[in-house]
Amino acid sequence: MTNAYEPEHRRFSAKGRRVWSLVRKESHQVVRDPSSIAIGIVLPVVLILLFGYGLSLDVTNAPVAVVLEDPSPDAMELAASFQLSPYFDAQLLTSMPRAQQLMLARKVDAIVRIRPDFSRQLSRGDAEVQILVHGTDANHARIIQSYAQGAVGQWATRRSAEGKEILTGPVTVQSRLWFNEANESRYFLVPGLIVLIMTLIGAFLTSLVVAREWERGTMEALFVTPVRPDEILLGKTIPYFVLGLIGLVLCLLAAKFLFHVPFRGSVIVLSGASMLYLLVALAIGLLISSAIKSQFVASQIALLVTFLPAVMLSGFLFDLHSMPAVVRIITYALPARYYVTLLQTIFLAGDIWTVILPNAAVLAGMAVLFLILTRRVTQKKLA
């Protein structure tokens, strides 16, 4: 039994030493390469600061012109609702042509017109307020329009509470946002940004590692050694996996302590989901790097098939339900779609297993698929 087991044990020990040697070699390469450190550690910090502080889909202090053509107290009270709102920077005017000039010059984003007969119509119960919104940015326009309607609704509610005639009837609407009570766009932008950083570290960096070996002529030196394809893959994956985890930790710390994004899930679940996605990104990068012998071409392909889809088609910036059906079908083939859903759910809603398990299972299947493809491509290169 001992003689039969000892060769296998020795083979396992030799394999472990070879993998460890490759890991040390690749780790030294990462440390000596300033670009790897910049992409893996410096760039995540820069991106999360720029996106977190600079990118916002919220609308605050939107410039609007309130055209007050009726000097009655009722009209003045309605105009004050816009002036006191934190969502508007209201400019009070008495001339509609002047407001139109400001709109054409893009000095205001909307016009709220209170007509001369507003008070008289209000007493009859059929008063109207005209809201004109600049529509070049459709999403921005819809948000301003909804905020303006909300300001009118609050004014009507106050009048109803005071027992006065109201504009909208006796029914008031009470709205509530689930999982993002503060209505802050960074609460879902920051988790989405983590997806971009994990994609950049995992796919972009590893798309260069094997191609770099070919360009430098060091791949041939590996051919004469006893290393096997799976050992090469392990040696090149482990250092960048650790680098990706470092980037993840930096992102999570920034999300928690810089941007105060609520975290309602489990750190263990978040870590497991992130490791799955990082494996998928690493496998895609290694697959590209093993198939392409040029670093430049490999990096461009990695950006096209991983980073750009993660920005445009993952749900990070744009609502997937608003996309055409054909595009939505394509998004199901993108790993970033599932990771965005996982992060936003774990951060804002908690451990919702009906969401976590299906998306994590898809990521696990993708990781296995891409690792098998990478192993086969690398085998062909070594043959």
Overview features:
single chain; 383 residues; abc type-2 transporter like fold; four-stranded mixed beta sheet; 14 helices
Derived from helix and strand composition plus strand pairing, the structural class reads mainly alpha
H and E order: HHEHEHEHEHHHHHHHHH
Count, helices: 14
Q: What is the gyration radius calculated from CA atoms?
A: 29 Å
Strand order of the largest sheet: 2-1-3-4
Number of DSSP E strands: 4
Assembly state here? single chain
Give the helix level as a range of percent.
55-70%
Task: Using the alpha-carbon principal axes, give the shape.
Answer: elongated
Number of domains: 2
Q: Biggest sheet, in brief?
A: 4 strands, mixed
Q: Please tell me the overall pLDDT.
A: 78
Unreliably modeled segments:
1-6, 167-176
Distance between the termini: 35 Å
Beta-strand content: 5-15%
Task: Please tell me about this protein's structure.
The chain has 14 helices and four strands. The protein is elongated, with a radius of gyration of 29 Å. It is mainly α and 383 residues long. The protein has a four-stranded mixed β-sheet, sandwiched between helices. It starts with a helix and ends with a helix. Helix 10 packs antiparallel against helix 11 (295-312). It folds into two domains: 18-55 and 184-382, no CATH class; 62-161, 3-Layer(aba) Sandwich (abc type-2 transporter like fold).
